[in-house]
Recover the amino acids of this structure.
């Protein structure tokens, strides 16, 4: 059973960088062909894809967030991280890390519980 757990600060000031880590257990982030992704849900809105990193380390980003986003990984810790620069209050959301199997229609097959991030001074 794959489990994902997000961690990071719950409050970030405007213009600063949001940094979150996803720790994966029950499976390696380098195995097979899975995509490991970050998604978020702002208050009152639907899920928004932020970006993904593949088992081989390739990264893909949402066009609307690409200029501010970086996803990396630490294979020794089986973790992948999200950095979102120059945040504004519009970046306030519940952030999730998840795993997706390519070629399927579901957005993810495993997902963390999510972590609330508020951008406020």
């Amino acid at each position: 059973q794959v489990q994902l757990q997000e961690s990071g600060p719950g409050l970030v000031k405007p213009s600063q960088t949001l940094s979150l880590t996803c720790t994966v257990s029950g499976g390696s982030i380098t195995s097979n062909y899975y995509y490991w992704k970050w998604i978020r849900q702002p208050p009152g809105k639907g899920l928004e894809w932020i970006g993904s990193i593949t088992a081989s380390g390739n990264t893909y980003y949402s066009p609307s967030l690409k200029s501010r986003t970086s996803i990396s990984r630490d294979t020794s810790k089986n973790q992948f991280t999200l950095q979102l620069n120059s945040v504004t209050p519009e970046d306030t959301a519940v952030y999730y890390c998840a795993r997706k199997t390519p070629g399927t229609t579901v957005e993810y097959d495993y997902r963390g519980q999510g972590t609330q991030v508020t951008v406020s001074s």
